[in-house]
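TASK: fixed-backbone design
INPUT:
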């Protein structure tokens, strides 16, 4: 009996190990995620329910949802929300058009295509702060190269203060963002284009299909999942962008380029109101989460239809 029990125990031990091994293998990753993601988020949510002024480090009374109410009713929230929405729409559309156009160019049988891939990917590899400084110098009203080129061709009579004009500052920021993020979208689209069977295009050409019909009936439908992925990623990037704004415009002129992310920074580091800043950051996170859920639902629907 003793030997039989020992044999059964030896057989049961590998089974228990096989069941526990998957959980133990991901345990280190779960611990890291909990320490650096879950805990900071929970702590931030907790802070948002307290009055937390950095000028009063020892006084943190519980105020419930007052931080959220004060942020939503603040002078800047509606305008910043509108600016953020317009900026996100302009950036996402611009990145989609730029990325798809570049991808189709690289996918064609042109010479030096491999070299162009490296050159086009360079802007995305450049740190955002460096990219912002580059564009700030390009658009400078005193020695900017863009105004210099326009002036040398006689298109303008004096240098243009791009970043001092509210409308031009918004356009400049969108251009810089598209230049920075467009190459990544182009690589995504290029990978998708190369997966489309050439037989589909050849069959459509035999049936008399032209360039636009091929693009509308073959290219776009088969690229829909990638398009939605790019939209999700670029929407998140546009809503959460801060470093580009900080370097190029500082939220100005007259808060014309101040997105919600900028005011979250301003509440903490300028107004020294940690409670307001964290509450605004959580509102931004909730807006982003809702948009992502909508996009993922659309993505799931498109996958089923395809």
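OUTPUT:
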């Amino acid at each position: 009996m003793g030997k039989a029990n020992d044999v059964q125990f030896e057989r049961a031990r590998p089974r228990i190990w096989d069941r526990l091994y998957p959980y133990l293998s991901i345990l280190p990753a779960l611990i890291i995620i909990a320490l650096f993601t879950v805990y900071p988020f929970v702590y931030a949510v907790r802070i948002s329910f307290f009055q937390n002024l950095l000028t009063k480090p020892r006084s943190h009374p519980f105020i419930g949802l007052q931080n959220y109410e004060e942020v939503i009713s603040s002078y800047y929230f509606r305008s910043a929300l509108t600016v953020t929405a317009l900026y996100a729409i302009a950036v996402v559309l611009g990145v989609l058009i730029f990325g798809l156009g570049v991808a189709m160019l690289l996918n064609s049988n042109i010479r030096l295509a491999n070299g162009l891939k490296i050159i086009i990917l360079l802007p995305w590899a450049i740190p955002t702060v460096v990219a912002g400084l580059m564009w700030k110098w390009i658009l400078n009203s005193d020695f900017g190269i863009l105004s210099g080129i326009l002036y040398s061709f006689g298109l303008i009579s004096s240098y243009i203060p791009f970043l001092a004009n509210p409308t031009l500052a918004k356009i400049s920021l969108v251009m810089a963002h598209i230049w920075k993020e467009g190459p990544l979208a182009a690589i995504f689209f290029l990978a998708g284009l190369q997966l489309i069977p050439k037989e589909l295009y050849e069959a459509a050409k035999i049936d008399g299909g032209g360039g636009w019909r091929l693009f509308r009936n073959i290219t776009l439908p088969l690229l829909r999942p990638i398009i939605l992925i790019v939209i999700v990623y670029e929407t998140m990037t546009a809503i959460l962008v801060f470093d580009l704004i900080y370097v190029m415009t500082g939220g100005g002129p007259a808060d014309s380029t101040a997105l919600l992310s900028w005011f979250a920074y301003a509440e903490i580091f300028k107004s020294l109101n940690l409670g307001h800043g964290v509450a605004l950051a959580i509102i931004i996170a909730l807006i982003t989460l809702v948009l992502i859920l909508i996009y993922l639902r659309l993505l799931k629907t498109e996958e089923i239809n395809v």
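COMMENT: The chain has a mean pLDDT of 83.
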